[in-house]
Amino acid sequence: MTDEAQPTETRGRMIRGWMARFYDAMSWVCSLGGEAKTNREIVERAGIKPGERVLDVGCGTGGQTLPAAEVTGPGNVAGIDPSPDMLERAREKAAKKRLDIDFRGAAIEKLPFDDQQFDVVLSSFMLHHLPKDVMRRGFGEIYRVLKPDGRLLAVDFTSGRSLIGRVMGFLGHAHKLEGLNGIKSMLAEAGFSTVEELPSKQGHLFYLRAQKMDQ
Ligand SMILES: C[S@@+](CC[C@H](N)C(=O)[O-])C[C@H]1O[C@@H](n2cnc3c(N)ncnc32)[C@H](O)[C@@H]1O
């Protein structure tokens, strides 16, 4: 049995304490108030449809988990994060909106779900929190829990294409272009048959869509 008040063991960089309490406010400031729009865009770009089963890995305070649940309908969305502090905020926000979401304390490298459960996995702004080997194991886990025709949408910062990206890189929050190429290769190694980068209007963000099986 897991103790939900304790952090899940991981070598990923989790967000705890006061950083978790102020995470939403900091995101709002850093995105100049645009984070809700970006979160809705992530859900749209993942092509999430009513009734689909969705897992949000590194869900944090639920920025993308809640809008995903608004599309799928009740009981279809799960979110995992190793930080109990982030999950506490996510649960409060879901309760306020009366959204039925299965939030669990867990890490990407050991997902607490059976094989082939989900149509879509979302990973937003969390890959830069992981050492490479943990990321590789995490991609293997995502592949395992996706249904045979399931898909992953991974969104994160890159430092290679804009000034904001370079600032994010300086702060340790962005992948260099080599790192982004490394992520694409790791996804292919995990078994994904198609890995494509979607166009991004913001130079500091990349959107990767990985399909488990060609359709
Ligand atoms: C920058 S936050 C992003 C949260 C949310 N997806 C968002 O965009 O608002 C990164 C999250 O990754 C989580 N994290 C760190 N290591 C992790 C791991 N091994 N597995 C899953 N999540 C992890 C952190 O605790 C944190 O909540």
Going by CATH, the homologous superfamily would be: Vaccinia Virus protein VP39
The profile of the biggest β sheet is: 7 strands, mixed
State the end-to-end CA separation: 39 Å
The CATH level-2 architecture is identified as: 3-Layer(aba) Sandwich
What topology, given as strand order, has the largest sheet? 3-2-1-4-5-7-6
Shape: globular
User: How many DSSP-defined strands?
Assistant: 7
Oligomeric state of shown chains: single chain
What number is the mean pLDDT? 94
Q: Please write the string of helix (H) and strand (E) elements.
A: HHHEHEHEEHEHHEE
Query: What is the percentage of strand-forming residues?
Result: 15-25%
Cofactors, ions, other ligands: S-adenosylmethionine
Helix amount: 25-40%
CATH topology: Rossmann fold
Low-confidence stretches: none
Overall SS class: alpha/beta
What Rg is obtained from the alpha carbons, in whole angstroms?
16 Å
Task: List descriptors.
215 residues; Rossmann fold; 7 strands; binds S-adenosylmethionine
Give an account of the 3D structure:
With 215 residues, the chain is of the alpha/beta class. It has one domain (17-211): Vaccinia Virus protein VP39 (Rossmann fold), CATH 3.40.50. 38% of the residues lie in helices and 21% in strands. It has eight helices and seven strands. The chain has a seven-stranded mixed sheet with strand order 3-2-1-4-5-7-6. The relative contact order is 0.14. S-adenosylmethionine (SAM) binds at residues 10, 12-15, 57-60, 63-64, 81-83, 86, 107-109, 124-126, 129-130, 134.
